């Protein structure tokens, strides 16, 4: 496994490529979660604006029961938004932790491969000196 310098170089290049791929996946995941959060906020803002308009119309008509129902719906939308944002934050934390773990494993693999490569080079030099 560590005897071939070419194999070690190839493995090292593969580990580097995996690290770059992992960084790219992490950036994509972060961007997707950011877009999801933005879309949720925009949706909630639009729904709240609509319900606010309906509530004002009902208040103008002096229908306090229906206006109260609109206020309850607004509260429900805000509660759901907070729950969704908490879920997104939880996912971000999970993805961040998993990314860091994979990144650490890849870096350790890279270090092992570099040590194997150095060992193979030293063994080759020793063979050349003694042979």
Structure description:
The protein has helices spanning 5-60, 64-130. The chain is built from 2 helices and no strands. It is rod-shaped, with a radius of gyration of 29 Å. The protein has one domain. The chain has 131 residues and is an all-alpha fold. The mean pLDDT is 86.
Strand content: under 5%
Helix content: over 70%
Distance between the termini: 22 Å
> What coarse outline follows from CA principal-axis ratios?
rod-shaped
- The number of helices is 2
**If you compute it from the alpha carbons, what radius of gyration comes out, rounded to the nearest whole angstrom?**
29 Å
Alpha-beta classification: mainly alpha
Number of strands: 0
Supply the number of structural domains. 1
Pick out the low-confidence regions: none
Look at the structure and give the mean pLDDT: 86
Oligomer state equals single chain
Q: How would a textbook summarize the main sheet?
A: none
Order of helices and strands: HH
């Amino acid at each position: 496994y560590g005897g071939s310098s070419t194999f070690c170089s190839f493995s090292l290049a593969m580990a580097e490529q995996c690290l770059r791929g992992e960084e790219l996946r992490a950036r994509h995941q972060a961007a997707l979660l950011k877009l999801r959060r933005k879309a949720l906020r925009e949706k909630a803002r639009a729904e709240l604006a609509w319900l606010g308009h309906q509530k004002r119309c009902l208040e103008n008509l002096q229908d306090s029961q229906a206006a109260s129902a609109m206020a309850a719906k607004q509260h429900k939308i805000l509660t759901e938004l907070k729950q969704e944002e908490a879920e997104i934050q939880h996912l971000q934390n999970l993805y961040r932790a998993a990314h860091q773990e994979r990144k650490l494993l890849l870096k350790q693999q890279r270090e092992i491969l570099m040590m194997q490569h150095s060992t193979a080079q030293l063994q080759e030099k020793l063979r050349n000196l003694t042979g």
